[in-house]
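anyone seen this seq b4? input:
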Amino acid sequence: MKKTIVAAAVGAMALVSTGAMAATGEQVYNQACQVCHKMGVAGAPKLGDKAAWGPRIAQGMATLQDHAIKGFQGKTGVMPPKGGFMNLSDADVKAAVEYMTNNSK
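predicted toks r here
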């Protein structure tokens, strides 16, 4: 199962890295972030999981965005810089973080 998830994530990264990313947070989530945040891969909080997102949201938007852009090793998992999608702009990542937090409160 892990190999399948990793293969799917790598495949999605290859697809996203070949094109320009969308501007809205929802579009960035759908094209990149959902690879991990839909199923909770590597400890990623699932979109809409209020219990998992609550403590993260309490740290403040600036901290969440910084962790998403630069990467972060937490107690329950790891967030690679820009989710491994280095072609994303900082603005794309910030929009995706805002989309996920707004849909997880």
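The first strand starts at residue 72 and ends at 73. Residues 48 and 103 are 6 Å apart (CA to CA). kinda curious what u guys think
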